[in-house]
Amino acid sequence: MMMASLALGIAAAQEYYPIEVKGKVGYVDEQYHLVIAPKYDDGYFGQNGYARVKLNGRWGFVNVSSRTETFFNYEIVSDLSDGYAIKRDNKTGLMGFVDIHGHAIIDNLYDARPFSEGRAAVKDKDGWTYIDTKGQFVFPRKRFEEARQFKDGVAVIKIYGLYGVIDGKGYYLTKPIYKSMGEYFGNGLCYAVMTETAHNRSGFVDENGNMVVNIKAAYAIPYDEGFSIIGVGKEPFLKWSVIDTTGKLIVGQIKDLVDVGYFVNGIANATLRDDKGKFRSGYICANGNMLIKPQFDVAQPFVDGVGRVFNDSKQVAFVDIHGRIIDVNGIIAAGIYDK
Which pTM was predicted? Predict the structure, then answer.
C-alpha cells in the first residue's frame, strides 16, 4: 500500500511520519507520539506539516497538527515538494501541479516530476522541459527527450538519444555524448557510459564531462558523503563494493549484499542474503557499515531522517539515523497525544 516518498525538501517546522496499522494509515510526530490514529486508506510523508492522504477513494491533504482535511476530485500522485504536488485527472490522465488548497499553477501535462530546487521537469505536447513554482516555463524554447530533477544546480537531460548536463540557465555543461547516465549528481559526480564509438568507456564524470573515476559497473549508487556503492558483474550475481571519490576501494566485496537503494544523509535501505538463503532487509551506511542489521522483509528508504520497516506486509517499526528501532505497537498502545 505504501510507496516510497519522493519528498525532496526538509522543512524546519515539525514534521509528521505515516504509521500503518491493519491496512490503515495515521500519523506520528517527530517524537513518535500518535497524532492521528490510523484511518486513511493510504498516506505519505508530508512537508511543512501537510501530508498526502486517501480516504474513501478520494485524494487530498491533511494538516496533521490541526487534523484539517481537504479532498479533491482528482488523484494526487506525488508528495509535496517546494509546496506543490502533482495531480492527475481521472478521466483524461493529464497532469498538473496544485498547492495544498487545490490551486493549480499549470495543467494539461503529459508527464511530470516533483519540484526540486524550485524547478520541475514536465512533459507537454512538444517534449520535456522545466517550469518554476509559478507555472512558467524556465526555458520556453528548449525541449528534451527526457529531463531529470535539478540537484546542486545541474540536471541530466536526454536529446537525440544521448545524455548530457545543463545548468540552471539551460546551458550545456556537458554536451549530450553519453549512452546512459545516473539519475543525478552526488558529491559533484555522476555515473556515465560513453557511446560505442568511445569504446564503451564508463565511470563517474563531473559536471563538465571530465572522467574522474574510470570504472565499469553494472550498477552504481550516486555518491553520498564521499562514498559510492557499485555493483560489478552480471545481475543477479553482482559483487558490491565501496569506493571513494577518487575510485579507491574502501570496502572490498560486501558479503551477501543483494540490492541497495539510494542514499539519504549517508544511509540507504539494503537487502542481504542470510545463512539460510533468505532475503532480509536493513540499512547500510555509505562507507559499507550496517546501521541496522538485516532483519525485516522490507526496509523503505529514509525520509526526513526516518525509515519504515515491514514484516509480513505489516509495518512493525520506525528506524532513525542513530540506529534506534521504535516499535509500532508501543506507539499505538500509548494512544493519541494531545499537546
Answer: 0.86
